[in-house]
Design a protein that fits this description.
376 residues; 9-stranded mixed beta sheet
Length: 376
């Protein structure tokens, strides 16, 4: 088959791009999403902390986050349930560690004021001497957000094919011919290919002879746990400024995470043996929270570029191949802005002035391929 735009990957990046492209074009016909797994959003997009933090990340990420939050809050006004809602974020620790982890301008909490907001930290006053609170942070329902993009895309006529791993790409005139792993193999021809393959994005880019972006998948382990005494739902998400483990309230009790960034190969990552038990021991040692059971545990891969800024733009050497990857730990919180930027670049060739020139430049793909890597 031949299509106008093929998107490789049906996580939050690929699905949000599909829905935004369809909206900008007025139709989703001619847009095909190819997902290697049996369903969409089976890897990192199903393993989100579900907190959108405007003070978290480098300046281009902060700008993308602010725009994305505003978009989700507005969209929720027209839906049966909101996509995002206010939920404060607290970074606690020593003054030095907190300052290193946060941006200027956040409200500072100390002593009684900190322990009133986060009473579980009261047992360790020497460890948690101060905190910074981001009251502009919001919580999101990752499952609902993925479903919203998917439903918008399908309603507009976008086709989503699962069990469709792209194994080869070759240039045929003005089109890319993509080989899809099937029995027998299938071929998809597309004028534009959007590489939204997450942890596999550099591997997918290599099929096109594209410029490698130095993307590094990094492990992060988390769990849903039950508590002896539940936290109130309005309790903020809390991050340890020194060691970067964190927790937040959840309907089950709490979501807790190691906050690690351990390099990994692209894979269906799983928690290391003993990792969650060690995390539980740390939280119970450092706070008054008492964990009574584990509902489920998981590990996601946050894929980062060396600049720690996502890549969103045309590859410099592979014509018609567009990068949308490297979102790192900012995938959900930048997804709406990145989807709009991608749609404008693909369809119009430029991003509007809603995004600053500095951020537009930071999103551009890096580098050039090895001498042996050439578009096929």
């Amino acid at each position: 088959m031949t299509t106008e735009i093929a998107i490789i990957g049906a996580g939050i990046a690929g699905l949000s791009a599909a829905s935004e492209l369809a909206e900008h074009r007025g139709t989703g016909e001619g847009i095909l999403v190819l997902e290697a797994e049996r369903d969409a959003a089976m890897h990192t997009s199903s393993r989100s902390a579900q907190q959108l933090i405007p003070s978290y990340g480098p300046e281009p990420v902060l700008e993308l986050t602010r725009w994305s939050i505003a978009r989700l809050l507005e969209a929720g006004n027209y839906l049966a349930a909101p996509l995002a809602w206010p939920s404060s974020f607290v970074v606690a620790g020593s003054p030095e560690d907190v300052a290193a982890m946060t941006v200027p301008g956040l409200r500072t909490l100390e002593g009684a004021e900190l322990f009133e907001l986060c009473p579980e930290l009261r047992v360790n006053p020497q460890r948690f001497r101060t905190a910074a609170v981001d009251e502009s942070a919001v919580r999101t329902d990752a499952t609902a957000l993925v479903a919203w993009h998917r439903e918008r895309a399908l309603a507009a006529g976008v086709e989503i094919r699962t069990n469709s791993r792209v194994t080869d790409a070759r240039r045929a005139g003005d089109l890319w011919e993509l080989t899809i792993d099937a029995a027998p193999p299938k071929t998809v021809r597309a004028a534009t290919v959007v590489n939204a393959a997450g942890a596999w994005a550099d591997e997918v880019g290599a099929l096109f002879g594209a410029a490698p972006q130095g993307l590094r998948p990094l492990r992060r382990t988390a769990a849903l746990v039950t508590l002896a005494e539940p936290m109130p739902p309005e309790h903020p998400m809390v991050d340890d400024a020194a060691e970067d483990w964190y927790y937040r309230p959840d309907a089950a009790g709490a979501m807790i995470s190691l906050g690690e960034a351990e390099p990994s190969e692209p894979c269906d990552a799983q928690p290391h043996e003993g990792a969650v038990a060690g995390l539980i021991a740390t939280i119970e040692r450092e706070t008054s929270l008492r964990i009574t059971g584990v509902v489920k545990a998981w590990t996601g891969l946050r894929t980062e570029r060396p600049s720690d800024v996502p890549v969103c733009g045309w590859d410099p050497v592979a014509p018609g191949m567009f990068w949308l990857a490297g979102q790192g730990g900012y995938g959900f919180q930048t997804s709406s802005a990145l989807a709009r930027a991608a749609a404008e670049l693909v369809l119009r060739g430029e991003v509007g002035d809603w995004l600053s020139p500095a951020t537009r430049d930071a999103l551009a793909p890096d580098g050039f391929p090895d001498q042996s890597a050439t578009p096929r």
